[in-house]
Design brief:
It is a single chain. The chain is an alpha+beta fold and 316 residues long. It is built from 8 helices and 16 strands. A 7-stranded mixed sheet has the order 5-2-1-6-7-8-9. Strands 10, 11, 12, 13, 14, 15 and 16 form a 7-stranded antiparallel sheet that branches. A hairpin with a 5-residue loop joins strand 14 and strand 15. It is elongated. The relative contact order is 0.11.
């Protein structure tokens, strides 16, 4: 079949590469416009565009999905299927109805759970033990279309969004190719979603990273894992912003106020939460690199009894 692929970040690359190795023909790719990135604000290509340039695949990068020039260019590719993995834009009806055999999405959850832009992060934040990949026909709603194939993936106790996403992406590429094969053969059986069971996974913002110390230790650990590597879970210590990279649940109960440092060892610090304590093991202080707590404490004095706070403060 003639396939147009839409995708942008690293998560989409295994889907594109799997398509390129399959029996279908990728006639063109749509990805987000080049954007400035990093402190130097250097304009960079999306990971999907990098693959396209390497493989000599035509690329479109529309600013607006309803742009008639873009829609016409897409129509000229004559796709039988538009395959979408983490493209980052909602497709309007004019595009959803364009390919003769529909638009198929690769989504990083076991739908109908975790619809939206952040399914991997929210599955970890919510303490799920498994997630997976769902392929589905796309509809006008947010991840509401009929499901095609699903595959479960276990979430390990130390997984972060950054470690789980590549495993899911590889499954997504394989499941996309299998979905297209069965579409060609006429052996797919679309399954409507149970909308009553749906949960949402909205896009995360930088401010979502602030640590609420009134949560339980397990909830905070899961949040740190789910927010890594972006936007990062952070707190303030004596006015200094710390990104928390690795934390683990503590062993003892405590009656100190949430956010209070209850113990300082040479390798970690213990902090009281709304239920139990956590060990803070790896951090990244403001204007510094990621380091172990031991490395930080070798050059900084930290006293028991100080408070970690959700907002900057010069008070200890």
């Amino acid at each position: 079949m003639r396939i147009v692929f839409m995708g942008t970040p690293d998560f989409a690359v295994p889907s594109l590469e799997a398509l390129l190795k399959s029996n279908d023909e990728v006639v063109g790719v749509v990805t987000q416009p080049d954007r400035p990135k990093g402190r130097g604000q250097e304009v960079v290509w999306s990971p999907v565009k990098v693959v396209c340039q390497r493989e000599g695949i035509p690329v479109l990068q529309p600013l607006k999905m309803k742009d008639p020039v873009f829609v016409d260019a897409l129509r000229q590719w004559e796709p039988e299927v538009i395959a979408v993995t983490a493209y980052g834009r909602i497709l309007p009806p004019a595009i959803l109805t364009l390919p003769s055999r529909g638009c198929i999405n690769v989504h990083g959850s076991l739908l109908p759970k975790y619809r939206g832009a952040g399914p991997i992060q929210w599955a970890i934040i919510r303490g799920e033990r498994e997630t997976g990949i769902t392929t589905m026909f796309m509809a006008e709603g947010m991840d509401t279309g009929d499901m095609l194939l699903q595959e479960k993936v276990a979430i390990q106790h130390d997984d972060t969004a950054g470690t789980l996403a590549p495993r899911l992406a590889e499954v997504g590429g394989r499941l996309l190719v299998e979905t297209l094969r069965r579409l060609r053969e006429g052996t797919l059986t679309p399954q409507p979603q149970d909308h009553a069971q749906a949960t949402m996974a909205p896009m995360l913002k930088k401010e979502d990273g602030v640590v609420d110390w009134t949560l339980t230790a397990v909830e905070i650990v899961n949040r740190v894992r789910g927010l890594s590597p972006w936007p990062g879970a952070y707190t303030y210590v004596n006015g200094e912003r710390w990104i928390l990279w690795r934390v683990t649940p503590g062993d003892e109960a405590q009656d100190a106020a949430p956010g209070t440092v209850t113990k300082v060892t040479k390798d970690w610090i213990d902090v009281a939460t709304g239920g139990g304590t956590i060990h803070i093991v790896d951090i990244q202080p403001s204007n510094s690199r990621r380091m172990t707590m031991a490395q930080y404490l070798a050059g900084h004095r930290l006293a028991e009894g100080i408070s970690l706070q959700a907002i900057p403060s010069s008070q200890g």
